[in-house]
Amino acid sequence: MKEFERYLLNRIAAANSHTLPVYRQQGGYKAIEKVLKTPLKPEDVIAVMKDSGLRGRGGAGFPTGMKWSFMPDITKDPRPRYLAVNADESEPGTCKDRVLMERDPHGLVEGCLIACYAMRAKAAYIYVRGEYRLSYDRVQAAIDEARAAGLVGKNILGTDFSCDLWMHKGAGAYICGEETGLMESLEGKRGHPRPKPPFPAGSGLWRSPTTVNNVETIFNAPFIVERGPEWFKAMGVPKSTGNFLCGISGHVNKPGVYELPFGLTARQILEEVAGGVWKGRKLKAFFPGGSSTGLMPASAIDVVMDHDSVKAAGSMFGTAAMIFLDETASIPQVMDVTLRFYDHESCGQCSQCREGTQWLHQMFHRIARGKGKREDLDLLVNLANGMAPGKTICALADAAAIPTLAAVKHFRSDFEQCIELGRDPHAPTHAPAPELQGAH
Ligand SMILES: Cc1cc2nc3c(=O)[nH]c(=O)nc-3n(C[C@H](O)[C@H](O)[C@H](O)COP(=O)(O)O)c2cc1C
Ligand code: SF4
Fold first, then answer.
1. Which domains does the chain have, with CATH numbers?
2. Is the pTM of this model over 0.90?
């Protein structure tokens, strides 16, 4: 792997990297100073973000500058406008935003200020996964320190820019990471996603213009503003620029969160970053970007890790949460636990998702327990095709259907073996999961 410049995780090696003095020693708050003192106009900041090519790190890879430009013209629409930062991080395998919030929370605070300035938002709400207590405490402490230093609140750095930052704790629901479910939850309601349109930029929090961005997306903004779009575009590949945080888990020697440039192959990441498959075993499969992205077989290990290449190979870059499975893994068991998650987390508003996730789970469960039927595999495919893509209010149904279709496509013989033998030959030796009520 060639040498590359790191910037996302550079600061966290310092002792007390989460505090204001250390952040400042490392050049922190220079980007917001540049914006306010130059001064750059809000539309100039959006133009810089657009030019950088930054794509959202929350899963869909949507261009950030373009998303910011969807906020309505303030001269024609004077409603208050908001930024909502998605720190819910509940996708199985994803654990990158946590590192930024725990170790470099001022980077997020500064990113929020820049984003709010660019979109003329009067406040940002940071919606943090309920289990992330340290993340919550560290970001709250950073906001308090910044407020005391005149960096958050009224007349920031003596200018007429005022902006407030507020924290909100989630309560353990994956669906509150979906952008409209998140807004419902922030408003104090049950986290039921809203049908779109209207999109958040037209009608978001309290029916006002709102932009929802992932933590890592916002964290990139100060670097881009300070060092310029040309510097940012020189990293990665033309359509996926900058570096990204790659959360590696599963059967590898060195799991962890790593900063990487786009354009490496999955093989390079597995072998040169994660230390290879553990215990000298062979690779069987991997999720490239979290459990909602299509499972890929070991033969796809030379896929290039950027948004478009992973898509062209039949899966998704997602949140770059790579989960590697070795040759002893049971794909039916993997799909059983994966679908148990989506079944549990479906909010129940759409029948395809409410019923579909439950049926997919029940079928995977019975196959994994050696009680599957021959017709189950075609039924799984029919059912998943009836759920996705884009057939429901939000993409949770897709998140369940996509890995289902990929698993049956690439590992059909593993499922057939379980059905024919009446047991799972790869079943782990520890006690099996308790019998599912109502499973067949
Ligand atoms: C069921 C579901 C759960 C999601 N969970 C998260 C999450 O935990 N964090 C996140 O940033 N995006 C999550 N998303 C994506 C958000 O809806 C949204 O696209 C994202 O926050 C936009 O940020 P970005 O443009 O910066 O990527 C989820 C989407 C779905 C459908
Ligand atoms: S797709 Fe599922 S999670 Fe999303 S709104 Fe419909 S029922 Fe709820």
1. 10-234 (3.40.50.11540), 237-326 (3.10.20.600), 331-421 (1.20.1440.230)
2. yes
